[in-house]
Write a structure and sequence with these properties.
The protein is an alpha/beta fold. The N terminus is likely disordered. The protein folds into two domains: 174 residues, Rossmann fold (3-Layer(aba) Sandwich); 91 residues, Pantoate-beta-alanine ligase, C-terminal domain (Pantoate--beta-alanine Ligase, Chain: A,domain 2, 2-Layer Sandwich). The strands form two sheets. Strands 1-4-3-2-5-6 form a six-stranded parallel beta sheet, sandwiched between helices.
Length: 293
Amino acid sequence: MAGSRASQPTVVRTRCELDGVLALARGAERRVGLVPTMGALHAGHAALLREARADADLVVTSIFVNPLQFAPGEDLHRYPRTWDADLETCAREGVDVVLAPDVADIYPDGPDGGVSVDPGPLGAVLEGAARPGHFRGVLTVVAALVGLVRPATAWFGAKDYQQLVLVRRMVRQLSQRVDVRGVPIVREPDGLALSSRNGYLDADQRRDATALWRALQAGSGRGSAGPAEVESAARAVLDGVSGLWPDYVSVVAPDLAKPPDSGPSRLLVAARIGETRLIDNAAVDLGLSAGGG
């Protein structure tokens, strides 16, 4: 279901303001959709907003740089804030409501002083191992946003694949009545996955960053040889770029478990380029003909 597009979204900053807007929507039995973001919106976010617009009667987008998912020394304070451009994107994509809360509205007892969501063992591997506490912060803020908005559906990008899997596990285990949908990765013409952090890269680093996509292609092309060969082929590409330092190259099952002997799997990679850390992933068919995603 698609609602009519407003020229400018309604901006709300407090729980009371949000409740007022949503009460009107629910009184009219309008289907509410949520797209959580940290702002710095790009074409990948726009794809999420379009999916939401095509499905929901009222689209809510949150713009909130979540301090709880940044470890000490990470880029919380330099994370890009592009408010005016973000509002233009939201208006162009037909967003109805932009939720831009203060930290106190999301964390009434402070980000480190209240209840948080433990992601469990799967939150301590891959990104969780590289960024301790990251998924606790992600799941806590998503749980808060879902509780505030109470959407029928929420959309997340597949670039953050581990996040997508953990959010789905959380809403199932906590009985949150929201349908979590993943949206395929949006890429530049040279294959680089769109990310708000791409703006940190200089020209040379931007060129080196394409190695992540080339590594995924090389790895997925070795699917018939098994997970070890997939990882080896991908890592060889990353190791061949002097300005890039791989964090991990890993083949997992679609639910992040140990990969099967054959069938659908996922290849995840992460690497540092200068002070910037990028992640990417692709589908892999193990034990079958070469494939990718």
